[in-house]
Each structure stands twice: as structure tokens, then as C-alpha cells.
Write a structure and sequence with these properties.
This protein is α+β, with helices and mostly antiparallel strands and 343 residues long. It contains ten helices and eleven strands.
């Protein structure tokens, strides 16, 4: 959801400036996007109409600005959106500029205003993204024929859209802590976790279709690995040994499998694990054709993540879902009596 970033998207349209800051949907007003895009690399709009919203014409300049806002990596692709992504990005950009225009028109119908102080502050912040006054003047000349009043009108439009989205979407999308708690209590299964084991392993894996001699050699190696593993005292010591002598892929992670749920534990390992204490090491086991010794770092019984641990991320998730729903309903209402043509 865009709020304060509509103003900075103007810079993307500055295709003849020496450099142009590509706006992202996470920017604050007037802030640089983080990298510069040489104008020669960006597509040059022709001012061709792409949509008409209640009689107001939106052009390919509006569309390209939004496309680069959605895909701010154009400079890394020779100024072009990858062909396989272009239809989807174009469709999303077209929907967005139509939505923004509908929001703006609704703001005008409601006779919403922007205070002179807020407008002045926004203009000041917008200018800060230009490295020199000359760069700003070049942008102004390129985009608005040097007309600062036209730029001011564009900035004011963005602020009105921002104001509308705050009142019609953001303000209606908050989720109280009580509502978060209610969701948590009504969905216990979502926060439950299974019985799990945190283990590290050292494995000796015989060759496929091993000969008796190879199997004998593998058992000899496994016995030696077990002897060395028994001498370790900590998870780090066990892990460093696994890194040196283990044959399984977990050796690059110090033998650490992280958490394995009970139903994923091999039966040959589950039985011993249920009898072990945290920090203990198993006997040498045969798991299929392989020899394995494992260290049990933690046995976690089944349980439920406490509310205090999940309340903040859960609240964000619920507010995001509510924001999407409120915005969709707002968008639907704006479209109900609108006359929209795509050209």
C-alpha cells in the first residue's frame, strides 16, 4: 500500500534528467530510492493515452512511472522490464494509476484540502532528493516546462491521495490487542508445535552396492567416528568433528539438523532419543545402510507458542490482511459509478 511515496514517484518520470531516482513502494516522501538510474536507459513515454477515468486521461507517462515503481530494477535490465514479467507489471500498474485517479477524484468531491504548511514541507522534502539545484531545474524543465505551479499541483494531488488512503484504509485497518488475543484463542492449532528434537549427526555412508570389504571398512570407520564423538563434551566440539569426518550433507552445518518433528525421526533414532537427556549422545546406530551417531541437544515436548511471543507478528499479519480487505472494498466502491476506459 502506498501512502507517502506518491510524490517521489514523480522523479521516475524525469526521463531526460541526468539521473532519476526510482521510487519504491516503501519510501518516505522526498527520500532517494537508494540508487540512480541513467535517464538514457529508461523507456521514454510519448504522452499516449492509456486510460480515461471519468473523462480524465491517463497517459503512458503515468503508466511507466508506476511500472518502474513496481519494478525498480529497470537499470539492471537495460532500462526494460523483463518480457516474462512485463504483462503482469503493466496490468498491475494500470490498475494502480486508475485507482489513484479515482481516489484523487473522490478527495475533490469531498472538498478535502491540504494545508499550506504541509504542502510547503512536502515540496521541501521532494527537492532534497536532487543532488544540486541544477538537477532540480533540469527535472522541472523536463517534466513541467519549468512551471513550478504544475509541480506543486502534482505534489498536492499526491498529498490528497495520501490523506484519503489514510482515512479510508489505514485508519480502518487497525487491529486491537484484544482482537489479536481473540484470534489466538480461536485458532489454537495454528500456534501449536509438535514434539521435536534438535540433533546433530555424524554419519558414515557406505558406497552404493558396497562389497563386503567396503562394508567392513565402513564399519571400521564408524567405530572410530563413534570413539571420537564420545570424547566430545559440547555441541560445538561435536559439530567440528562432524565437519571433518561425517559423510552426510549436514557436515557443512556442523552436523546440525535444527528441529526434527517426531514423525520425521527415523525409527532407529526415535527410540533412543526418547530415552536420552538433553546434551547426551547416542550409541552407534545403523539407520538403513548407514552408521549414525547423534547428539541430542534438546527434546521439546508438544506445546503451544505463548501469546506474548506471537502477538506482535500476528498483529502485523492481521492488520495486513485487514488492510487488503478494506482497500479492496474501497476500490470496489470507487469503481461502482465510475466510467473507466482502457485505451
Amino acid at each position: 500500500m502506498k501512502y507517502k511515496l506518491l510524490i517521489c514517484a514523480l522523479v521516475v518520470a524525469s526521463l531526460s534528467a541526468a539521473t532519476a531516482q526510482v521510487a519504491s513502494h516503501g519510501q518516505q516522501p522526498g527520500q532517494p530510492s537508494g540508487f540512480s538510474v541513467p535517464s538514457a536507459q529508461l523507456s521514454r513515454p510519448a504522452g499516449k493515452p492509456v486510460a480515461r477515468v471519468n473523462g480524465v486521461v491517463l497517459t503512458d507517462a503515468d503508466l511507466i512511472r508506476e511500472e518502474y515503481s513496481i519494478f525498480p530494477y529497470a537499470a539492471q535490465h537495460s532500462g526494460k522490464i523483463p518480457a516474462d514479467m512485463e504483462p503482469g507489471i503493466r496490468k498491475g500498474a494500470l490498475q494502480m494509476i486508475i485507482f489513484e485517479e479515482l481516489v484523487y477524484q473522490d478527495a475533490l468531491k469531498r472538498k478535502m484540502t491540504v494545508s499550506p504548511e504541509r504542502l510547503a514541507k512536502a515540496e521541501t522534502e521532494f527537492r532534497k532528493q536532487f543532488s544540486t539545484p541544477a538537477e532540480y531545474r533540469q527535472f522541472l524543465q523536463s517534466e513541467f516546462n519549468g512551471n513550478e505551479q504544475a509541480l506543486q499541483a502534482k505534489v498536492k494531488r499526491s498529498l490528497l491521495i495520501d490523506q484519503m488512503l489514510k482515512s479510508e484504509v489505514a485508519a480502518k485497518s487497525t487491529v486491537s490487542l484484544a482482537a489479536v488475543r481473540a484470534f489466538y484463542d480461536k485458532n489454537p492449532g495454528r500456534f501449536a508445535y509438535p514434539e521435536s528434537f534438535a540433533i546433530q549427526t555424524i554419519s558414515v555412508i557406505p558406497p552404493e552396492n558396497a562389497t563386503p570389504a567396503q562394508l567392513k571398512e565402513a564399519k571400521k570407520r564408524a567405530d572410530e567416528a563413534y570413539k571420537q564423538a564420545k570424547a566430545t563434551k559440547t555441541a560445538m566440539e561435536f559439530g567440528l568433528l562432524a565437519e571433518k569426518i561425517s559423510d552426510d550433507d549436514y557436515r557443512v552445518m556442523l552436523g546440525d539438523h535444527k528441529w526434527i518433528s517426531r514423525d520425521k525421526m527415523p525409527p532407529e533414532m526415535l527410540g533412543p532419543a526418547l530415552k536420552m537427556q538433553d546434551g547426551q549422545m547416542s550409541d552407534l546406530l545403523q539407520v538403513g545402510p548407514n552408521y549414525v551417531v547423534f547428539r541430542l541437544n534438546k527434546h521439546l515436548p508438544p506445546g503451544k507458542t505463548p501469546f506474548e511471543q506471537v502477538k506482535d507478528p500476528l498483529r502485523k499479519q492481521l492488520e495486513k490482511q485487514k488492510t487488503d480487505d478494506v482497500r479492496a472494498a474501497f476500490n470496489k466502491r470507487l469503481h461502482e459509478n465510475a466510467k473507466i476506459e482502457t485505451l
